[in-house]
Design goal:
Blueprint lengths: L15 H17 L2 H9 L9 H7 L17 H13 L6 H14 L5 H4 L4 E3 L6 E5 L3 E12 L6 E8 L10 E6 L4 E4 L9 E12 L3 E2 L3 H33 L1 E2 L2 E2 L4 H25 L8 H27 L10 H15 L2 H13 L18 H12 L6 H7 L17 H13 L10 H11 L2 H12 L5 E4 L15 E5 L2 E12 L6 E7 L10 E7 L5 E6 L8 E12 L3 E2 L5 H7 L15 H14 L5 H28 L14 H21 L1
Parallel strand pairs: 1-4, 2-4, 11-14
Antiparallel strand pairs: 2-3, 3-7, 4-5, 5-8, 6-7, 9-10, 12-13, 13-17, 14-15, 15-18, 16-17
Helix pairs in contact: 1-4, 4-7, 4-8, 7-8, 7-9, 7-10, 8-9, 8-19, 9-10, 9-11, 9-19, 11-19, 12-14, 15-16, 18-20, 19-20
Length: 689
């Protein structure tokens, strides 16, 4: 019995060709490996090759990321990851992931051995730990020992195995890798938590193997690629779990309400979605790189740190939300928990991956985030460069005025206040100004206020306030939140009563930033207490020098006062300072949420806070203890995933301009905001240590 699929199972890729590949893979798996086939594999006494294997070979998916000259499809790792994600979503049986991993490795390091794998001979890579011991005899090596567990090993014909040569290497990390046929080995199926795709132990006893079977690949290259391949399947597993749990929470009624309305269930679903999207971002990022790229090891380590753990935790969360039905053999949830459990075991504890992230970063490696702009972007550069030349010919004190009057401070705003710039043009402007060392002024709260005036203000209000604010001649504060109206902003109780010539405002605002410095405030007040709460609110512009205003700094636990309480006592606001319609203030309040610009952050993908912590650690000259290294590695992995979410948000906004299919908005922006706050708190905490 399968639960319906919903939005969480949308393919990760943003590329139109890969979106079509994902749709094809999903349809094919739905027809060739429905849940009945999965359950048949689950109940089978021994693992057998799926009936769909010849058709899979015919599709060419084993060689999806193999170059055409070597008999493959000429695709990329991202193409393979797209199919692997669908494989995890279907929790399909069969040794496809291991065969595709081996084919991808051989394509680069030993293409002469590729032909049988491309033709359908099953391959397996022993990346799960352990190594054979070897005695080097020059043209041959004598192998002894056991390697386990090997994913898909019970069906494999060809094994890529780690080999440690006696007196030549000291650790598994220094292993050589040999390609050996099943007939030369003892392959023993192992009892596995996931009977749908089983594990095996591989044993060699005084096996003489020609040295030409040695594959010139390093251990970290094998494990990095394996981590990405496995993370891709885990994203599919996690996506099914999140989607299934959320759908169940919407429909399961207890105490006359869907259980999804209960905060504990709602938060568990949200936490699971956050873990999924972190893993999705990390895996997508690694897949977009060529494995030969110098940044690939870092991206792969982040995927290794997040992928399998996300699948495991999301599977557990799904069963918790499903309740009793989730514990039954009949329901499919345990199939996904089994796949995730084995993946986590094969991938290893996330601690080593977090340590590897930290080690790579300490060595100076960084992941740069950038959008490959199309040729059409070049048409925007001459005008921006002309502006730069103009600015360089005047004193810096005049820059703000030049930038404001030319619409460069907020180029995405409509003319004449901005430049009505497309997302692509915004990125070009950012890039050119950054390279020229020109920083646009931060207009602070005006960045929220002015879009409201542009959308809802009168022409007189726009002329009076917008240009002066862009030039920094006027500063603003926001008078929205109240003691009983924080997140529920529509519950404001500040009264606005009609008087001659305008309105009299009385009430209390709280958490107001820059109240003491501001010239003006944008304020929400209730003009009709009898109307529904969203309909009886009006938006006002308040002169902060009005004698009826009292500002009290709100001292925080730090001892400083960043916020303020603002008390309004019969503050007169003239009619020409009403924004929009009377009782139409809610639409004004929402406008700011619809005016986010397209941008790409510059500098490190880890953010300045975490870079400062790393710099502090470096300057102390001592290596942090294992616990701190684990915490730092986890923060670095999360920071990179958050940065990738930002990149994905930008790509979605630019999809049409980049020649991509319109992929629509995704969850990344909201999740990034949620996780970003918690992440920064953890960064500060570890910095204090």
């Amino acid at each position: 019995m399968s639960a319906p699929l919903s939005g969480a199972t949308a393919p990760s890729t943003l590329n139109p060709d890969r979106l079509e590949l994902a749709r094809v893979a999903r349809r094919w798996l739905g027809a060739s490996s429905p849940i009945s086939v999965v359950r048949q594999a689950l109940e089978s006494e021994t693992e057998v090759m799926p009936e769909f294997w010849p058709e899979l070979v015919e599709l060419g998916w084993i060689g999806l990321s193999v170059s055409e000259e070597h008999g493959g499809q000429g695709g990329t790792l991202a193409d393979l990851v797209t199919v692997l994600e669908e494989w995890g979503l279907a929790v399909a049986p069969g040794p496809f992931p291991g065969s595709a991993l081996l084919a991808t490795l051989l394509d680069v390091h030993a293409p002469e051995f590729l032909a049988p794998i491309i033709a359908g001979a099953v391959g397996a890579v022993a990346f799960g730990g352990g190594a054979l011991q070897a005695v080097d005899h020059g043209s041959t090596v004598l192998l002894t020992g056991e390697v386990k567990p090997v994913d898909g090993g019970s069906l494999a014909e060809w094994f890529l195995l780690p080999v440690v040569v006696e007196q030549a290497t000291e650790s598994e990390a220094d292993a050589d890798w040999y390609l050996i046929h099943r007939d030369e080995l003892l392959v023993t199926p192992l009892r596995s938590a996931d009977p749908v795709r089983r594990l095996a132990a591989v044993t060699a006893h005084n096996l003489s193997v020609s040295s030409d079977r040695r594959i010139p690949v390093q251990t970290h290259q094998v494990r990095d690629l394996a981590a990405v391949v496995q993370a891709a399947e885990c994203v599919g597993v996690a996506a099914w779990c999140v989607s299934t749990a959320a759908e169940y929470a919407k429909n399961r009624v207890q105490f006359d309400r869907p259980i999804g309305q209960f905060q504990a269930v709602k938060h568990r679903c949200a936490d699971a979605l956050c873990r999924l999207e972190e893993a999705r971002a990390a895996t997508w990022d690694a897949a977009e790189l060529d494995p030969s790229d110098e940044q690939f090891p870092l991206a792969a380590a982040v995927a290794g740190a997040l992928g399998a753990t996300a699948a495991f935790e999301c599977a557990k969360d799904a069963i918790q939300i499903l309740g009793g039905i989730g514990y039954t053999w009949e329901y499919d949830a345990h199939l996904y928990l089994r796949r995730a459990t084995v993946a986590r075991h094969l991938n290893g504890d996330p601690v080593p991956w977090r340590r590897r992230v930290w080690q790579l970063v300490q060595s100076g490696l960084r992941r740069s985030m950038a959008v490959d702009l199309p040729a059409s972007a070049e048409s925007f550069r001459p005008e921006v460069r002309s502006l730069i030349t103009q600015l360089q010919q005047v004193d810096r004190e005049h820059w703000n005025r030049e930038l404001a009057d030319g619409g460069w401070i907020a180029p995405h705003w409509p003319t004449p206040w901005g430049r009505s710039a497309s997302g692509l043009e915004q990125l070009v402007i950012d890039e050119e100004l950054r390279e020229a060392g020109i920083r646009r002024p931060h207009i602070q709260i005006a960045g929220w206020v002015l879009p409201t005036l542009i959308a809802h203000g009168t022409s007189a209000q726009q002329e009076r306030f917008i240009r002066a604010s862009l030039r920094l001649d006027l500063r603003w504060c926001q008078l929205f939140s109240e003691p009983e109206a924080g997140s529920d902003l529509a519950s404001v109780t500040t009264r606005a009563e009609r008087v001659e010539g305008g309105w009299s405002l009385t009430g209390q605002k709280v958490w107001t930033t820059l109240a003491t410095e501001a010239d003006w405030g944008i304020c929400l007040a209730r003009t009709d207490p009898t109307a529904p709460k969203h309909e009886g609110i009006t938006c006002f512009l308040v002169d902060m020098r009005n004698p009826g205003i009292e500002i009290r700094p709100l001292r925080e636990l730090t001892g400083f006062a960043m916020f303020n309480e603002v008390f309004l006592d019969q503050v007169l606001v003239p009619d020409d300072c009403v924004v929009g319609d009377v009782n139409g203030g809610w639409s004004c309040a929402r406008t700011t949420l619809e005016n986010e610009r397209v941008s790409m952050g510059s500098g490190s993908s880890f953010g300045p806070g975490l870079e400062s912590v790393l710099d502090l650690s470096h300057r102390t000259g001592s290596t942090p203890d294992a616990r701190v290294v684990d915490v730092l590695g986890g923060l670095l992995a999360s920071a990179q995933a958050l940065s990738v979410m930002g990149l994905r948000t930008t790509l979605r906004a630019l999809s049409s301009e980049l020649g991509m299919a319109a992929v629509g908005p995704g969850p990344e922006a909201s999740i990034r905001k949620l996780l970003g706050v918690e992440h920064e708190q953890r960064v500060q905490e570890v910095g204090m240590e």
